[in-house]
Every structure is written in C-alpha cells, then in structure tokens.
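Team,

Forwarding the record for the chain on the shared tracking sheet. I've put the sequence and predicted structure together so nobody has to dig through attachments.
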Amino acid sequence: MLIVNIHEAKTQLSRLVEQAARGEPFIIAKAGRPMVKVCALDAPVAGQRRRLGFLTGEISVPDDFDRMFDAQIESLFSGGK
C-alpha cells in the first residue's frame, strides 16, 4: 500500500483521491509514522436510487402492528410478569 507524507499528500491530493476512489487506498504519514488511511467509500453510484416497494408481496405487516403485545408491555412496566 502506498504511504505518502503529509506534504506530498497536500501537493498531490487530487491525484491521490482519484486513486483511492478507484480502489487503491493509501496511507498518510507524519515524520514516517502512519497517521490515516484513505480509501473509497461504499457509496451508491451517482444516479442510483433506492428501490421503494421492492419487497411488495414478499412480506406483510399486520394491521395491529403498532398495538402488538400492548398487554405484555404494560404488564412489564407495572411490575407484573
């Protein structure tokens, strides 16, 4: 893995960031001591959208979802078991 000192990183930042974005991470060192690792983020590709509703028909949420286990929860808070 490429190790660059801070001065070199500052002068060549654009090139180094492009390399990292292509999957070639690098380390920035200060006085020869590694300080940080720069690598690409696992971000979606520009223009890619999340697909809403892609599980339609695969799962179902009960109508009383927001009231499920009310009695048990109330019992736990009031000291019952």
